[in-house]
Request: fold
Amino acid sequence: MAVRAGGLTARRLPAIAVGSVLAAGSVLGALAVASAEDAERRARLDDAAEALAERVADVVERHVVEVERLAAVAPSPASFRIDALRRLGAVDEITAFALAERRTGALVVVATVPREAGVLRTGADLAAVDELEVIVERVVTEADPSAGGPVRSADGEYITVAAPVVADVAAPEAARRASVSGAVLGAVDARRLLAPWEGTALLVAPDGRSVGAIETEGRAFRRSVEIQGRAWQLLLDAPGHGWPGQAWLVLGAGLSAALALAIAFHVQLRRRHRAEVQARERSRQLERIADAGARLQQSLDLSELLPAFCVALSTDFDLRGVAVSLLDEHGEIQEAFSTGERLPDDLDGTASIELPLRRGFRAVGILSLSPGRVLDHAELTSLQALADLLAVAMSNAQLYEREQLNAARLRDLDALKNAFLGTVSHELRTSMTAIMGFGELLAESWDELDESRRREMADRIRRSAGSLRHLVDDLLDFARLEQERLRVSPRAVDLARIVRQTVDTLSPLLGRHEIALSIADSVPAHADPVAVERILANLVSNAAKYSPEGTVVTISVQPVGDRARLVVADQGPGIPAEERRRIFARFYRLETPAVVRTRGAGIGLAVLRDFADRSGATVDVDEAEGGGARFTVDFPTSAPAARDDHMAEAT
Amino acid sequence: MTGVPNRALIVDDDDDMRFLLKSIIERANEGLEVAAEASGGDEALVQWRALRPDVVVLDHRMPGTTGLQLAEQILAEHPTQSIILFSAYLDDELVARADQLGIRACISKDRYDDIPEALWRYGPAA
Reply:
């Protein structure tokens, strides 16, 4: 689950690169926009500066012409006023005219249009106005029109244009200079003159005086303006110069877009990375599940399966402990296997986790995990899936185990059946051979055999026939009992009488054994006489077979409580306690020498048990006095409850 | 072949069978005689070592040592000993194993009449 930091950084790099490229692009874009804008603006400013320079020259020259004209045509104050008023209406930037007369070395203003126009006040000595000193001097001494010296007054700034008043304008220069009697001055509104310029402008006269203002933060333009043969300087400044707003906009938008894109890209990358991590993790979980599934398929033996599964699980999921507990047949949880350590239940967030092992809708066990760390949702899901797989595998293993047991039982049964067939064949053939062999000998060699030999052979024939008959009876009973075709019909009988009658017919089975009877006069019982005969015959035959010749077989019939008890005891080797339950099983024969030596098919006691069961009797075997076997059969003395009777009838 | 003594050892856990074989062999006479009888493997080995019979007639199905096991022991000590397996239940597997061990003949118990002839065939002249 650990995400490597390096991986994440590597993932971030493209986003950062894209963002950087966008940012750089936006800066370059802004620069390009600014540069294009700048060039355009520069060209525009150049044009404007040029136009302004031309306008300044033009306007000032034109006003010079106006004041010249006034000076020529209006020497008297009255005509000057009329002409001046007319001219003020015709020109824009001229704001005032003044007519000055030369009086004792000074130029005194004698008329102004309009009245009181700034410094050009009637009665003012122009020579005394500092700003006008130079132009007045020049006009008077050189007798030429001139422009210059901006004048600042309370209401504005003015360029002064001036023309001499001479007697004869067309006279030669020297004569004109001598005849200068006064001057006409015009005030050109410098602000209005420079108004077309958007920024600040400074007009510097040849005498160094300047009009206007300039701030140096912008880009300056310099133009030389020639007025009346003299060079003026026009200094201009483009206000607010720098990056244009559009460039800022481009830059800002570009950077924002870059940032947004970078963030979006980064978010998307992170999301994709997270999805990839999740997909990888999911695929890893699936691999684990598949691996574990395969591992679970490898064995059907729980003792192999559980350790392999638990150890692999603890390795795959980095768990500190894994344990599997199963429900036993009593519903108790029993630990079947555990590996690693078991952590205490309460270890903040790393508590042990118990997952149910589910089969259908019920839990058949618990998979206990001690992770030692916090498991995430995906891991828990995987672990539950694995628990389910384990439950299925365990179910299969248990099924397999049961099948194995069944198969083993069938094999055992098959072996028993084969042994039975072998035994039956052997018993039948041996008895038949004895009967036929002795019969043949008697028939063919009667005369050659002495009496005792003949008797002996006849006796052997009889005994073999008896044992053959008993075997055949057993086989037939067995077959009929197996097919449920033998009906046992218990009724009220005298057990003592039936046993006494049957004993007489058992002599062929008894051979050379002695028999001892202990039979009460009358023992009422609820039994089927045929079943009693077969049970007794089997018990007596058994006793005779498994106890040495010459020993005593005891038969006793007595009432015991509400039971009628038949006991057959012998003086043979007895039946080992651990074998006493099994001797009633079909085909089962003890492996003791006494048993192996005797003829028998291993069905006598099974048949006996069957008869007893159907008669409502119980059969028990224990040790007789002297170590022999003692069989006790307890018959009921009355019919059982109606329902049981009905059942017995039904069988 | 008459006149050549042919002594047999009869090994069978069933008394009737021993008695029958003995009666049949005695009736056939002609040099055949039952040297001894044994009802089990251990007893048979003792008898066999003491008497060195010409032919051993062996039942297979006996308590303790089976006929084949006894035959194996006898043949291990005396590989040319004539042995006849006389069994009530002969199947192919038993016959094959007997053949492998070196048992001369397998005779089913219902063919008890064949015993004298088999004794002559596998007796001392064989």
